[in-house]
Q: What sequence folds into this?
C-alpha cells in the first residue's frame, strides 16, 4: 500500500510534509496589542498568493474589513474538501502575525448539511482578536454555504470565544449546499477530522 501525505493530496504532488515545529510558540506580551494588518497589505499579499485567480479579492477583503475591522493575523494556504450530506476539509498553510512571526499549521474538520460536491481551494483566512499564536490551535465553528461550478471567491466567519476567522476561498470544483462545520487547527498533519 502506498502512503500519500496530505500535501501530496492537496497540492497534487510535491515533497512530503515539512519538518514538524519544535519548541514553544511565541506569545505576545499581555499588555502589548499587536498592530493590525492594513487592507492594502492584505490585498497585495492575496494577489501574489492567488495569482491569476485574484480578480474580486479586493472587494471580498473590503467587505470583511467593513464587517469585522482590520485583522491582527492572516493565514495563506491550500485546502481540499468533499461532501455528500457529510463532508470533510483538509488544509495546510502559514499563519502570519506582526509580533510573533510565522507559524506553519494544518487544519481539518467535518461538516454536515445539505451539501454535495468537491473542491480544491487556495485560502486566505483573516484572523481577528488573536492574543497569542497558540490560541489558533482549537476548533472554530460556523455555517457555510456554497454554490459554484468551476470557481469564484467566497467567505464565511468561524468563531471560538473571542477569536474570529474569516476564510476567503477560491478554487476549482463543483459545490452546492449549506452546512454546519468546524475547523480544527493543529501543528501536525492528521487524517482525523474530529
A:
Amino acid at each position: 500500500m502506498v502512503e500519500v501525505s496530505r500535501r501530496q493530496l492537496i497540492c497534487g504532488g510535491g515533497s512530503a510534509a515539512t519538518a514538524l515545529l519544535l519548541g514553544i510558540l511565541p506569545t505576545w506580551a499581555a499588555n502589548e496589542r499587536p498592530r493590525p494588518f492594513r487592507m492594502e497589505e492584505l490585498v497585495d499579499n492575496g494577489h501574489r498568493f492567488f495569482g491569476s485567480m485574484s480578480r474580486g479579492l479586493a472587494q471580498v477583503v473590503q467587505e470583511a474589513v467593513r464587517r469585522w475591522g482590520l485583522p491582527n493575523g492572516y493565514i495563506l494556504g491550500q485546502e481540499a474538501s468533499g461532501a455528500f450530506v457529510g463532508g470533510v476539509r483538509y488544509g495546510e498553510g502559514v499563519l502570519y502575525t506582526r509580533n510573533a512571526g510565522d507559524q506553519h499549521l494544518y487544519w481539518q474538520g467535518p461538516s454536515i448539511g445539505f451539501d454535495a460536491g468537491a473542491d480544491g481551494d487556495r485560502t486566505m483566512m483573516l484572523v481577528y482578536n488573536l492574543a497569542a499564536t497558540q490560541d489558533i490551535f482549537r476548533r472554530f465553528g460556523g455555517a457555510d454555504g456554497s454554490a459554484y461550478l468551476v470557481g469564484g471567491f467566497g467567505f464565511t466567519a468561524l468563531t471560538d470565544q473571542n477569536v474570529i476567522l474569516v476564510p476567503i476561498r477560491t478554487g476549482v470544483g463543483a459545490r452546492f449546499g449549506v452546512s454546519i462545520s468546524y475547523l480544527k487547527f493543529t501543528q501536525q498533519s492528521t487524517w482525523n477530522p474530529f
Observations:
- The beta strands are 73-97, 102-128, 139-150, 153-155, 158-160, 163-186.
- Residues 144 and 179 are 5 Å apart (CA to CA).
- The helical segments are 6-11, 39-50, 57-68.
